[in-house]
Amino acid sequence: MMVIYQTVMIPITMAERKRWTKQARTILDIIYTNEESLTASGIYDIAREAHPNISLGTVYRNLKRLDEAGLIRETTSNGVSVYFKHPFSSAHLECEVCHSIIPVDIMIDVGDINRRTGHVVKKWDLRLIGTCKECEGRCI
Length: 140
Ligand SMILES: [Zn+2]
Prior knowledge:
Blueprint: E1 2-4, E2 11-13, H1 14-18, H2 22-33, E3 38-39, H3 40-50, H4 56-68, E4 72-77, E5 80-85, E6 91-95, E7 101-103, H5 110-117, E8 126-130, H6 133-139
Parallel strand pairs: 6-8
Antiparallel strand pairs: 1-2, 3-5, 4-5, 6-7
Bound molecules: zinc ion.
Zinc ion binds near residues 95, 97, 98 and 135.
């Protein structure tokens, strides 16, 4: 049986999930079920509901390990680290006024790029910089 996280192309088998601690799995689930970007302290606040004794240090350690394993991605929003789903969903709309970052689904044919260029794409990070609808509304 596989757990396929929504909107993500990475299938995570139950065997792979079992390699991670309960706390790491909770953090993974928090990141994958939130559409918004989350800071480590935001993740910590949610994780404490399931694991009242979890420490912020444990959250940071697990975020680092999950990032290294390619299951999540760390990026920065206005100088603060925020965490998102798997790298292949790493396309974001960034507002240059309020610095909000919103994930957006964009399909890129990585296989085609690899075939045409000989390059082996492992992940991508796309920022579409502009003005969010709230900030754009204020300017009118
Ligand atoms: Zn904005």
